[in-house]
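*** Residues and shapes ***
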Amino acid sequence: MLSAFINSFKVEELRKRLLFTFGVVFVCRLVSIVPTPGVDATQLQALVQNISNQVGGGILGLVDLFSGGAMSNCAIGALGIMPYISASIILQLMTAVTPALERLAREGDVGRQKITQYTRYLTVVICIIQGYAMAVALQNPSYLFGRDLGTIVNMDYVWGFRILTVITMTTGTVIMMWLGEQITQSGVGNGISLIITVNIISRLPGAVQAMIRMFRPMAGGEAQFSVFHLVGLLLMMFLVVAGTVAVTQATRKIPIQYAKRVIGRKIYGGQSTYMPLRVNYSGVMPIIFASAILMFPQKILQMLPGEFFQNLAASFAMDRGLYMTLYALMILFFSYFWVATVFNPVQIADDLKKAGGYVPGIRPGTSTAEFLDRTMTRITLAGAMFLTIIAVIPTIMARQFNIPWIVASFFGGTSLLIIVGVMLDTMRQVESHLIMRHYDGFLKKGHLRGRR
């Protein structure tokens, strides 16, 4: 594998792509550092990190995670790339239910370019809305943090600060969106996903420091954790990562047979292949949907008067049993919801029938669609259960074993799934470049076999 990394820089085109990707990622990290004018960044950073270190971190913890600390720095990239992700999800869901968008998606590259353009416009609209909400929240921090915290904004002119914040944060997100597209075109991997992954990994040094403090003796006492706990954590990390990689790549292979066709004097078709159905078809989206929706009940209940609503709001804390139960159920629900929205067995069966393909033992057409739907429903259950287990591991570690949240978040949840998925996809792209130029990939003995 190490030889494969070395060989990656021997191929001129791949070397240029890798260096370009590293350079663009560096620029994205700068966007996460440049502060927004008019904000006391020191006070805001201390408050956001205090909340983010709690179990789950709430909505601020999630935003700060995807923005790579830009939220706690109140940088121009505080919104991160999430508005673009939200716009992409909205357009993808609307494509499944809107005939006009569905026709565009079927038009090939021209249709996809139009949908991409609509996604950019929607991203700007979402940025303006979220940027304005962020500006108002910074001017009234009691709404953002749930308690009176004084003044975070240094500017006296209210609307001047709001307009400036909307412009800078929208510009920051648009710049990161454009840089992500440049990585996809001229670099290696999916640019948007790679930016999110790098932002998440940027928190790793802080997690390592927190983990080291776990095993240091406290003043006048013993360390909170022993070397046996360290061995257990490392073993657990290995098992969780290995399981995540296995389930991420796991597929159910549906055999496909194509009928022979005689055209003139030549015979076409007759070959056998298979259709891969991913076990974790929805990826990390159910966890993101469930986390986003469950952030609102606690905030809404806290605004209502009465001790009953306050106690109920406390039950929606991320380390409580009610929250974890609803969290697990919603992950299961959204796993099936995403598959039902994106996976279209009727269209797949129709395309197979037009191409002369069929599943052995299954009639083409409606029977094939029913078979694919039934098969996908079964394997989705396994993927949804895996997602549920992975999602609740960090919360259980932080609640039951008193492990700092910044450390526990790398043992599962959204962070681990995104890192594993994006890294596997990027390695596959690099490996394809190596194999095309007669180099071995990452899973073989890395040695030079031919020309560069």
Observations:
- The longest helix spans residues 366-400.
